[in-house]
Structure formats: structure tokens, C-alpha cells
Known about the structure:
The protein has 252 residues and is an alpha/beta fold. It has a single domain (3-251), classed as TIM Barrel (Alpha-Beta Barrel). It has helices spanning 3-15, 56-61, 65-85, 98-102, 106-117, 131-134, 137-149, 165-171, 191-206, 219-227, 244-251; strands at 19-28, 34-45, 48-50, 91-95, 124-129, 153-159, 176-179, 210-214, 232-234, 242-243. Strand 1 and strand 2 form a beta hairpin. Helix 3 runs parallel beside helix 5 (106-117). The radius of gyration is 18 Å and the shape is globular. The N and C termini lie far apart (42 Å).
Amino acid sequence: MENLDLKKDFEKALKENEFIVFLQPQFDSRTEKLVGAEALVRRIIGDKLLSPDSFIPLYEKAGLIERLDTYVLEEVCKLQQSWNKKGFFLRISVNESANHLSNEKHGQDLIELLNKYDVSPEFIELEVTESAVIKDIEIAKKAHKRIHELGFITAMDDFGVGYSSFNMLKNIPIDILKIDKSFLDGLLEHRRFQIILESIVDMAHKLRILTIMEGVENRQEIEYLKEIGIDIFQGYYFSKPISINEFENRYI
Length: 252
Ligand code: C2E
Ligand code: CA
Ligand code: CA
């Protein structure tokens, strides 16, 4: 699609509420109790459910992603507000794209949105990927500092697949490391892979950073990951991303 058509189509999708937030639950590795959820967007057109991989990259290129991320955050704030009224509190993470972060006004925009719905920032986690950060480490450093000072939790998504994971870790004070699911491929068969993962978890803990393993699909993985001290699990073994309705039926 041409940029203009893409933009028109995006506006239509926003106006007609075609973007829907799904939630994937996260569990404490020791107790296996619910400790959080990740907001993952889908688009519904008629009876079709489009996966974010089919539209997010296009929106990134076309400069539309910031608006989508803000929309998702606002949906999450509305949800938090309704849960809080019922006395239910849960940390929800949202994905943040690169450009957003470096925008100086961004932190303030986030706070305004939270104030509108009376949500406390400690219940919102911002996930960024390292590619979002490496473009300019100095800007990213400042942005993280600001966001932290405002009380948000920050997580680094897809850790370990890019070129600069460690450079980023060295410079940016984050709270949570989300270890990419590709680390699970062959993990139980290769001692070499295990040593690398164990060292990452160790390092994170020494830096007082929590670790989330994403993409856990079976019990053997879980038993091993518990042993090496992963803090939080997210993956199909526990649940796929589900609609808010289903999430509430299961967990509230
Ligand atoms: P991500 O942030 O790495 O999200 C995790 C993806 O892994 C999700 O795909 C989730 O459904 C999938 N997943 C979770 N558990 C398992 C598992 O056990 N096995 C396997 N094979 N996969 C698992 P999803 O929902 O299709 O999202 C794809 C990507 O789209 C996300 O990757 C994220 O980068 C992007 N995305 C989704 N929502 C948003 C959004 O609101 N804003 C932005 N900027 N990006 C988003
Ligand atoms: Ca994510
Ligand atoms: Ca991820």
C-alpha cells in the first residue's frame, strides 16, 4: 500500500475500533501465581484477526506506530482503572517503539494519560527493544532516567538477539530483562547454551534486574528455568495471549 492509503486505512481502523488489546499472563517462577500481563495488539477486520507482525512493521515505517502505542496504552489505562475500582491490581506491560522514547515530551505525555485514568505508574511497564535504544545511547539514557523518575517500570524486550545487548545493558538502567524465546531452542540438549543463559540470569541478578523468560512451552523447560533462577514465566505453556474478557474470566 502507498503511504497515503496506509494512513487512511490506519485512521479508519482507529475510528472503527478495529485495534484490540489482548493480554498474555505472566507467572512467578516459584509460586506460579499471576504477577503481570503483557498487552499485545491485534486488528479485527470482520471475522479476521490480524497478527501484529502483519501491520506493526508497516506502521513503523510509515511513522504511525507512536499513535498505535499510545492507543494501546490508553486502552490499558482504562482497563487498569476499571480493575482498580474492583480492588484488583496487576502490572501490565506495553510495547514501546523506538522513536517514542527519544521524544523529550514522551514521559510527560505518559503521565498525563495515567492521570486521566487515575492509574499509578508502578502498574505500567514499558518494554523497549535494544534496537530502540542503540541509535543514540545518550538520548536513551536520558529518556530512561526521566521515565524512571516518573515511577514507571522499564523492561528490555527480546534480550540477547541483537548485536548490542550488552552495550545497552551497560548504559541503561532497566528493571526487567525479557530474555528472547530463541534462547529456548535446543536449550535442554546443549550444555553450552545453558551456560550462556545461566550467566545472563546471574549477571541480571547481580545488577538487581528481574528476568522474564518468554515463550516457555513445556514443563521440562520450566523445571530447568526454575533451577537457574529465572524470576517470571510467560508462554503458551501457561496461556496464549487472550482477550480481556477471557482474561477477566480466568484470573479475576
Ligand atoms: P513480543 O513483544 O516479543 O511479544 C511476544 C510474542 O511472542 C507475541 O506475539 C506472543 O504471542 C508470542 N508468544 C508468547 N508466548 C509464546 C510461546 O510460548 N511460544 C511462541 N512460539 N510464541 C509465544 P504477537 O502477539 O504476535 O506479537 C508479535 C510482536 O508484535 C511483539 O513481539 C511485539 O514486538 C509486537 N507488538 C505487539 N503489540 C504491540 C504494540 O502494541 N506496540 C508495538 N510497538 N509492538 C507490538
Ligand atoms: Ca514485548
Ligand atoms: Ca519479546
